[in-house]
């Protein structure tokens, strides 16, 4: 897959009219708006920031659309642009000490992730999650590091392959696999501890099996 070229001054290759690219972009990229907005919400702290990130993503994607290789995953390509745009915005915010960057994954945006997360976990883990109300699962997710949450979202909600997630996030495929594994492992540990305190289950072992109390 060709990497997105943000604002490539070279423009489209010879023989390809800008009008043709614009028509292709409208036909292929615009239907992804809702999905991209949901992703932007998980990378920002409020709706306005999500809308700004989405707008920036679409602009950069349009400018560099001639670098997209037809037949590859456009969704993953767009998320790569969004990921890079978010990093750029984050760095700009860090240079503004008067502005506080809120936790990237706001708690309210995690609600839609729960059914996908349950689907992504092994059946024994999923049945253990059913013992918890959504707010406790959200609290557990908020204890995960940002890269774990984002990786799990791309894998379980967007259905991207490990290779595609590696392209999006700019890390090795092995790192993606590790983040998914460690993120779910940490989630099991947090929920298992909470369950034992509430006496919902006696134990949630490393094999994902749980034993109910009573």
TrEMBL record:
<keyword id="KW-0805">Transcription regulation</keyword>
<dbReference type="InterPro" id="IPR013324">
    <property type="entry name" value="RNA_pol_sigma_r3/r4-like"/>
</dbReference>
<keyword id="KW-0731">Sigma factor</keyword>
<keyword id="KW-0238">DNA-binding</keyword>
<dbReference type="InterPro" id="IPR014284">
    <property type="entry name" value="RNA_pol_sigma-70_dom"/>
</dbReference>
<feature type="domain" description="RNA polymerase sigma factor 70 region 4 type 2">
    <location>
        <begin position="135"/>
        <end position="187"/>
    </location>
</feature>
<dbReference type="InterPro" id="IPR039425">
    <property type="entry name" value="RNA_pol_sigma-70-like"/>
</dbReference>
<comment type="similarity">
    <text>Belongs to the sigma-70 factor family. ECF subfamily.</text>
</comment>
<dbReference type="Pfam" id="PF08281">
    <property type="entry name" value="Sigma70_r4_2"/>
</dbReference>
<dbReference type="GO" id="GO:0003677">
    <property type="term" value="F:DNA binding"/>
</dbReference>
<dbReference type="InterPro" id="IPR013325">
    <property type="entry name" value="RNA_pol_sigma_r2"/>
</dbReference>
<dbReference type="GO" id="GO:0006352">
    <property type="term" value="P:DNA-templated transcription initiation"/>
</dbReference>
<feature type="domain" description="RNA polymerase sigma-70 region 2">
    <location>
        <begin position="33"/>
        <end position="95"/>
    </location>
</feature>
<dbReference type="Pfam" id="PF04542">
    <property type="entry name" value="Sigma70_r2"/>
</dbReference>
<dbReference type="InterPro" id="IPR013249">
    <property type="entry name" value="RNA_pol_sigma70_r4_t2"/>
</dbReference>
<dbReference type="InterPro" id="IPR036388">
    <property type="entry name" value="WH-like_DNA-bd_sf"/>
</dbReference>
<dbReference type="InterPro" id="IPR007627">
    <property type="entry name" value="RNA_pol_sigma70_r2"/>
</dbReference>
<dbReference type="GO" id="GO:0016987">
    <property type="term" value="F:sigma factor activity"/>
</dbReference>
<protein>
    <submittedName>
        <fullName>RNA polymerase sigma factor</fullName>
    </submittedName>
</protein>
<keyword id="KW-0804">Transcription</keyword>
């Amino acid at each position: 897959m060709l990497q997105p070229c943000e604002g490539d001054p070279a423009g489209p290759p010879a023989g390809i009219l800008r009008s043709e690219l614009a028509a292709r972009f409208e036909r292929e990229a615009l239907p992804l708006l809702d999905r991209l907005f949901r992703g932007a919400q998980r990378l920002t702290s409020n709706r306005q920031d999500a809308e700004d990130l989405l707008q920036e993503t679409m602009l950069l994607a349009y400018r560099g659309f001639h670098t997209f290789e037809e037949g590859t995953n456009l969704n993953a390509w767009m998320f790569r642009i969004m990921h890079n745009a978010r990093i750029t915005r984050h760095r700009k915010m860090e240079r503004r000490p008067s502005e506080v960057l809120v936790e990237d994954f706001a708690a309210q945006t995690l609600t839609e992730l729960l059914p996908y997360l349950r689907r992504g976990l092994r059946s024994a883990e999923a049945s253990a999650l059913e013992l918890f109300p959504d707010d406790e699962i959200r609290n557990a997710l908020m204890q995960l590091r940002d890269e774990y949450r984002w990786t799990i979202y791309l894998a379980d909600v967007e259905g991207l392959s490990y290779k595609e997630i590696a392209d999006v996030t700019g890390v090795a495929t092995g790192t993606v696999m590790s983040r998914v594994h460690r993120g779910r492992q940490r989630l099991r540990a947090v929920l298992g501890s909470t369950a034992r305190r509430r006496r919902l289950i006696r134990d949630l072992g490393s094999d994902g099996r749980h034993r109910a109390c009573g």
